[in-house]
Amino acid sequence: MRSDPSRLSFEIDARDGDARAGRLVTAHGVVETPAFIPLATRGSVRSLESADVAGLGYELVLGNTFHLFLAPGAGRIARLGGLHEFMAWDKAIITDSGGFQVFSLAHGTVADEIKGRRGRSGTEGRVLEISEKGVRFRSYVDGSERFMGPEESMSVQAALGSDIALVFDECTPFHADRDYTARSTERTHRWLGRCLDWHADNGPPRQAVFGIVQGGVHEDLRRESAETVTAAGVDGISIGGTLGKDKPEMYGVLDMTLPHLDRRTAKHLLGIGEPDDLVEGIARGVDVFDCAVPTRLARHGMALAPLPGKRHRFDVRRSALTEDQGPLVEGCPCPACSSYTRAYVHYLSREQELTAVRLLCLHNLAYLRSVVAGARHAIFQGAFEKYRKAILGGAAPWEVE
Amino acid sequence: MRSDPSRLSFEIDARDGDARAGRLVTAHGVVETPAFIPLATRGSVRSLESADVAGLGYELVLGNTFHLFLAPGAGRIARLGGLHEFMAWDKAIITDSGGFQVFSLAHGTVADEIKGRRGRSGTEGRVLEISEKGVRFRSYVDGSERFMGPEESMSVQAALGSDIALVFDECTPFHADRDYTARSTERTHRWLGRCLDWHADNGPPRQAVFGIVQGGVHEDLRRESAETVTAAGVDGISIGGTLGKDKPEMYGVLDMTLPHLDRRTAKHLLGIGEPDDLVEGIARGVDVFDCAVPTRLARHGMALAPLPGKRHRFDVRRSALTEDQGPLVEGCPCPACSSYTRAYVHYLSREQELTAVRLLCLHNLAYLRSVVAGARHAIFQGAFEKYRKAILGGAAPWEVE
Predict the structure, then answer these.
(1) Are the beta carbons of B33 and B375 closer than 8 angstroms?
(2) Do residue A125 and residue A225 come from a single domain?
(3) Tens digit of pLDDT at every position of chain B (401 positions)
């Protein structure tokens, strides 16, 4: 397999240092980059309709291969016309490979990971066997035994009909030692080959495939993985695996990875998307990001905001906001900030009204969209470094000149 | 107090038998009748924004005095500019009196009621004292002792700034005997006088007040209550209390009540809103209805549909719909049916995705809006009886010529 513009082309319109403004041209339209990708895990973005997501300016969403494989099933979605038709979304879709989720059954969730737990969250006994072939596990839907390996993942993604498929990999956990990480990364590379072989013979002609760089926090493994994935001739490259214990280490992993990737290739940072991470990733040459943060924060009553000392967020349920008549974030053009006060969202969120989740999802997604749109504008102006510093310093993305 | 067109006027544009097509002219716009009123219990209609509710064609929503009194509090909403401003809704609002909820603490919930239970649902010990003055109870929000009587209810509704306030009453439960119902109805009448007195001295000049007819299932009590409320000179009349054990008995209660009410007055049936009940109520002269059904059904994965043998609803989670590519209801012009399949809503609802609740709320509210809009049209055509039979027989409201 070689990268092929009939599946996907990536045009770089402007560069500013290592940051780039580009366009991913997919079978379902153009995605301007830098871009943030909202999660449509089970074919919907939490509390929103597809039209709402498009209305926020998004051109690409991420569907979850693992969850859609278990229910409603890839064959069913194919019979219903594919994932675009199923969810009434005519713009681009990227699907993850399911690797992250099947291995999370063994390694524990990201939350377990962060908290130093291992294999918790009721996932014990879910993984029956991990082998060169793939992973045998028990479905959380009906308890049945299921199997997913490179070919199965690609086959599911083919049935879903996504514009961009990701190769099946093991997301090496933070607690894995160097030896485990090295062996796992080698297996991920062998799986990369099998994914590309399967796709060359069976993949939808217009579906692009992104390879995934692993290697944990080890510079030599990251470099080797970057070179291996680049040499495989993929349509784009995702950076996965553990990115370290904190943000400086994450940026360090990007610094040890990106220089070894082809500058012309589209680059995707997996599972990262806080405002500071977006500008730091863009500064290093990342083009697209996906992350659960905006929608997950919404569920917990948190709004994204230009507050670098507070992780760019605040809790709308704080008592201080009980009678606050301002919008969630002053100047924010989102549907929630245009019509409603902090006092209203505060009250609805405290009362666990579903409308609060919707308003916060709209705001948080609009906020991240503003961050990447502002970055794109700044790159064209040759002013990205100033923009990055402004965002890190607490400016709202629409305030930066 | 006398009814006053500066607060509210009700213009009847067409009559067809006892059914009428009219316009309620409120301080926040005109409400075409017959009308269904969505519940914005805590200042939001479940999963929707105020703009969504307006987009469905609704001109009037119902806010809940009891819940808004306990949190965020009437004073707070007043300081935030009133309920319209708080929830960004510039059309009309009716507020219930809180009587139903405070007495539910003693009598049990509607669900308890239907199931023949008494004072269940963890409400034991919540009511501290019921007296001529009002009801002393414990707040579910913070456990504090609170009091609500006629004057307090009117004062809260004044602070909320609703266009139509309801008088404070006891909703007599189905399990109450005739003697209890008679004494309760007399007290409700005394409270009616106190509410109107308070409002004449202190009410917002443009807020209308609806009286409530009680009397249970007893013809003489209903007639007496209808006459008492009519004589009090209210701006409109709500029909409350138990309406019997089943639909025939409910229609019987309407038949024993409506003939004793002034034909020119706007009439509101409290807490009723299934499609068959709407056309049966309209046939008897009811103008507006409020009900939790459309939004509560949405939470349970149920869609309203022209299925009279199945209570005008179906369960979207049924296995038969797994690959059903039709809309929820063929021909339905709602946002959910315009864009999404039954298979999609089925899947999202099974997976408990919030988007499913939203799509079902949009559909169910749009469906009831179609039922009342169709009724209005039929009344103008002098064809309401045909319309009523068509709806009862399983026609979709937009199919009836």
Answers:
(1) no
(2) yes
(3) 567 888 999 999 999 999 999 999 999 999 999 999 999 999 999 999 999 999 999 999 999 999 999 999 999 999 999 999 999 999 999 999 999 999 888 877 555 544 445 444 555 568 999 999 999 999 999 999 999 999 999 999 999 999 999 999 998 888 899 999 999 999 999 999 999 999 999 999 999 999 999 999 999 999 999 999 999 999 999 999 888 889 999 999 999 999 999 999 999 999 999 999 999 999 999 999 999 999 999 999 999 999 999 999 999 999 999 999 999 999 999 999 999 999 999 999 999 999 999 999 999 999 999 999 999 999 999 999 999 999 999 999 999 97
For residues A187 and B223, what is the distance between their CA atoms, to the nearest angstrom?
A: 83
Mutation target vs B (from A295, A346, A351; most B CBs, 10 A cutoff): A351
Q: Tell me if residue A23 falls in helix, strand or coil.
A: strand
A275 & A349 share domain: no
- Judged on CB neighbours under 10 Å (0-12, 13-18, 19+), B398 is middle
Measure the CA–CA gap between B315 and B13, rounded to whole angstroms.
38
The minimum CA-CA distance between A298 and chain B, rounded to whole Å, is: 12
Angle at B328 between CA B323 and CA B331, to 5 degrees: 120
Is residue A202 within 8 Å of A154, Cβ to Cβ? yes
Q: Are residues A155 and A224 in the same domain?
A: yes
Asked whether the beta carbons of B92 and B29 are under 8 A apart, the reply is yes
CB contact under 8 Å between B88 and A358, yes or no, is: no
Q: Which of A227, A257, A291 is the endpoint of a domain?
A: A291
Question: Residues A141, A71: contact at Cβ < 8 Å?
Answer: yes
Q: Which of A161, A122, A164 is nearest to A143 (CA)?
A: A122
In whole angstroms, give the CA distance from residue A32 to residue A49.
21
Interface contact A49-B355, CB threshold 8 A:
yes
B182 within domain boundaries: yes
- Judge contact between A205 and A7, C-beta under 8 A: yes
Asked if B343 and A80 come within 8 Å (Cβ–Cβ), the reply is yes
Q: Are residues B47 and B85 part of one domain?
A: yes
Same domain, B319 and B370: yes
Q: Answer yes or no: pTM beyond 0.90.
A: yes
Chain B residues inside the 8 Å CB shell of A335: 49
Q: Looking at B170-286, list the stretches that DSSP marks H as alpha helix, in order from N- to C-terminal side.
A: 178-202, 219-231, 247-257, 275-283
By CB neighbour count within 10 A (0-12 exposed, 13-18 middle, 19+ buried), where does A260 fall? middle
pLDDT in tens, A21-72: 999 999 999 999 999 999 999 999 999 999 999 999 999 999 999 999 999 9
CA B239/CA B250 separation, integer angstroms:
11
Same domain, A143 and A209: yes
Distances in Å between the Cα of A106 and the Cα atoms of A141, A183, A239, B66, B178 are 17, 16, 21, 49, 65
Structural domain for B321, as ranges: 299-390
Distance set, CA A211 to CA A95, A181, A192 (Å):
12, 17, 7
Residues A172 and A272 in one domain: yes
Q: Is residue B397 part of a domain?
A: no
Number of domains in chain B: 2
Residue A35 maps to which CATH number? 3.20.20.105
Q: Determine, yes or no, domain membership for A397.
A: no
Structure tokens at B16: 């067809």
Whether A50 has its CB under 8 Å from any CB of chain B: the answer is yes
* ipTM of predicted assembly, 2 dp: 0.95
Among the candidates A291, A318, A335, a domain finishes at A291
Mark whether B94 and B186 lie in a shared domain. Answer: yes
Distance from CA of B218 to the nearest CA of A (A): 39
Helix, strand or coil, per DSSP, at residue B259: helix
Domain assignment of residue B216, yes or no: yes
The region that residue B82 occupies, defined by phi over 0 for left and psi between -120 and 50 for alpha, beta otherwise, is left
Establish if A316 touches chain B: CB-CB under 8 angstroms: no
